[in-house]
Amino acid sequence: MSKAEVFRDLHRHRAPGDPLVLPGPWDAASARVCAEAGFPALATPSAGVAASLGYEDGQVPADEMFAAVARIVRAVDVPVSADVEGGYGLAPKELVERLLETGAVGCNLEDSEGGVLKDPRAHADWLAEVRSAAADRLFVNARVDTFARGVADPERAIERAALYVAAGADCVYPIGAPPEVLPLLRAGIQGPINVGAPTEGGPTPAELGARGATRITFGPGLQRRAARALREIAEGLRP
């Protein structure tokens, strides 16, 4: 079984309260730590990778992002999915080729640009082209940015998700969705749902799974926590 098949299989038949937890490594060293901790797969965060490369989120040149993903993939034996933001303006075929060259088994793709939601039908058509070029070699996680862009109505997220699933997305990610609306999203969305891990003190992954999450990702959260810990250590080293 290929790594892409293993990764896809990890999303199937998840019991309520048992979501797939995918830590977000930002470089090869953090990827090894996560793999050694026993996680079966990883999902890179674009913002965390950007910070590791000295960029603001959304400012990493495509070549540097793909190179960073390739380093992470080479560092571990488990499947790695890559957050490649909005696809860097690449045509679907080229985007798929670049992702496969890194060794990634999946990708996260946003449906807004410059803080503005894309036309959902046009984006669905683009996702369908990505799926066609990738076939089953990539697991496509289609981000739904309505909540992140101030659209609080869950029905708007459900409508976009339906278009993206019909276009071939393997999973949808209503980023920023409040935990209390997850049961409604679960009832209205076909297939796996990605949910971002909450800030410290929020619902646990198991609790999010019970509310409808198929998988949990962390965005730049782990990188930021690691940076805070390192800052504290560094401050303690000063004479």
Characterise this structure:
This protein is an alpha/beta fold and 239 residues long. Helix content is 46%, strand content 14%. The chain is built from 10 helices and 10 strands. The strands form 3 sheets. It has a 5-stranded parallel beta sheet. Helix 4 (62-75) packs parallel to helix 5 (92-102).
Give me a quick take on this structure.
With 239 residues, this protein is α/β, with parallel strands linked by helices.
Give the SSE order as H and E letters: HEHEHHEHEEEHEHEHEHEH
Average pLDDT over all residues? 96
Proportion of residues in β-strands: 5-15%
Figure out the total of helices.
10
N- to C-terminal separation?
A: 55 Å
Gyration radius, in Å: 17 Å
What is the strand tally?
A: 10
| Order of strands, widest sheet | 2-3-4-7-8
| Low-confidence segments | none
Q: Which structural class fits the helix and strand makeup?
A: alpha/beta
Task: Describe how the helices and strands are arranged.
Layout: H1 3-10, E1 20-22, H2 28-36, E2 42-43, H3 46-53, H4 62-75, E3 80-83, H5 92-102, E4 106-109, E5 112-113, E6 116-117, H6 120-134, E7 139-144, H7 154-166, E8 171-174, H8 182-188, E9 194-196, H9 205-211, E10 215-217, H10 221-237
Parallel strand pairs: 1-10, 2-3, 3-4, 4-7, 7-8, 9-10
Antiparallel strand pairs: 5-6
